[in-house]
């Protein structure tokens, strides 16, 4: 008879501030949460404190920051990655697959420095990534007072998404962020120089995350933060746990890896209209009885928002096709065949 590993629900009080909730753990093992990932090693916190663990190349899925691991007591050998509540991903450089950013995240803080243009398209993409990961997107404007901010317009461009305005230098807006993150795991996503590490240090109350200077010529920063790192925030005055925040390196582009439903979640008004369309499979591209088209005609739906929604839907479909190699190759073949047939008809019509 094969030996069966006993799996039980166990309590680890020292890990509760890191988000541990009773869940199944194998006999002879203990849970650990990944704080940092550096090549072949992981820094993780377990019931005994912080440990350095060696990555296991054959482990599937590969661990990332925010993951909970099942590790052997004594040896620290990683046995498994525990079930994830969500996974924040983006399209990798050169559209070669996807890049994992963080796991088990509750809130995605879309960090935008007011000292540079705040790009609606970037916010929409990151918000879509957040919904796809089962997290809530929140816009955090940093460096308040160092540039012009049209707050009503920003809120109008992103209906349903909370906007917080902060200044780490002045200490303003930090309590709102602390209250939001309390008891949760949040991740900061934004460009280099957007103030993610400075905000992290302000929330921690100490200089823990390395910060860098921003060029005065274009307000761009260099990649000071080179690795994603999870930080435990101090408890709040009312006794609530401060939660956790993941500081990340700046990202220049936000390639989308998400499904159509996650895109629509970022455009809540379009999703609400779509529920009133005559046909449940309406594509909102001229079909009869389309509530989205009617809203465009009477001006109640902003045309730019509709075009942004269409663009992200196309990006999501394209990313899905690339992820499914078979479907992508089939799509390319169909497109090539159609193009050749079009050229043949064109020559025949001369």
TrEMBL record:
Its main location: cytoplasm. GO terms for molecular function: GTP binding; GTPase activity; metal ion binding; rRNA binding. The keyword Glycosyltransferase does not apply. Residues 103-252 form the EngC GTPase domain. One of its GO terms (biological process) is ribosomal small subunit biogenesis. Its cofactor is Zn(2+). One of its GO terms (cellular component) is cytoplasm. Belongs to the TRAFAC class YlqF/YawG GTPase family. RsgA subfamily. GTP binds at residues 190-198. This is Small ribosomal subunit biogenesis GTPase RsgA. InterPro entries: G_CP_dom, P-loop_NTPase, Ribosome_biogen_GTPase_RsgA, RsgA_GTPase_dom. One of several proteins that assist in the late maturation steps of the functional core of the 30S ribosomal subunit. Helps release RbfA from mature subunits. May play a role in the assembly of ribosomal proteins into the subunit. Circularly permuted GTPase that catalyzes slow GTP hydrolysis, GTPase activity is stimulated by the 30S ribosomal subunit. Its EC number is 3.6.1.-. SUPFAM superfamilies: P-loop containing nucleoside triphosphate hydrolases. It is an enzyme of class 3 (hydrolase). The keyword Transmembrane helix does not apply. The gene is rsgA. It is found in: Cytoplasm. It comes from Glaciihabitans arcticus. Keywords: Cytoplasm, GTP-binding, Hydrolase, Metal-binding, Nucleotide-binding, Ribosome biogenesis, RNA-binding, rRNA-binding, Zinc. Pfam families: RsgA_GTPase. Zn(2+) binds at residues 277, 282, 284, 290.
